[in-house]
Design a protein that fits this description.
The protein is mainly beta. It has no helices and eight strands.
Length: 134
C-alpha cells in the first residue's frame, strides 16, 4: 500500500502583522484648539533671572470664546478651563479669534488672540489675565 501525501490548508490567525485602523478623514478637516489661561504678574517686582515662584499662574474655571477670524460677531465655540487652566475645542481648519471672559478676582479679560487652526493638528494659544499686582 502506498501512502498518499496529505495536502491541507492551515489557517493561522493572529500570526500576521495587522495594521492599526486608520482614522477616517473628516470632510473639510478638523483640528484642535488648546487654550491656556494664565494670570500675572504674580509678584510685585520681577527679577532677572525670573523667580520661578513669580511665574504666571493657571486660571481655572475661565470662560473662553471662539469667533470666526473674518470679524463676524458670532460664537463658534465656548469652553471653560479646567483646574490646570486649560480648555480644548475641536474646530474646522481656519482662522479664529479667541477671547476670554471676566474672572472674579482678576482685572478685565485678556486681549483677543488671532489663531490659525490646521487640519489634524493641535494649535495652542495663551490668554493672559492681569492680576493687577504692581
Amino acid at each position: 500500500m502506498r501512502a498518499l501525501p496529505i495536502i491541507g490548508l492551515v489557517v493561522l490567525t493572529g500570526c500576521l502583522p495587522v495594521s492599526p485602523p486608520r482614522p477616517t478623514p473628516v470632510p473639510g478637516g478638523v483640528g484642535q484648539l488648546e487654550i491656556h489661561a494664565l494670570a500675572g504678574p504674580v509678584c510685585p517686582v520681577e527679577s532677572e533671572p525670573p523667580d520661578p515662584e513669580c511665574a504666571p499662574r493657571p486660571v481655572p474655571r475661565a470662560s473662553v470664546f471662539v469667533q470666526p477670524g473674518d470679524g463676524r460677531d458670532i460664537l463658534v465655540a465656548q469652553a471653560t478651563t479646567d483646574a490646570r487652566g486649560v480648555a480644548a475645542v475641536d474646530l474646522p481648519a481656519g482662522e479664529y479669534v479667541v477671547l476670554g471672559g471676566d474672572v472674579e478676582g482678576l482685572m478685565a479679560g485678556p486681549q483677543a488672540v488671532r489663531v490659525l487652526v490646521t487640519t489634524h493638528d493641535t494649535t495652542t494659544v495663551e490668554l493672559a489675565w492681569d492680576t493687577g499686582i504692581r
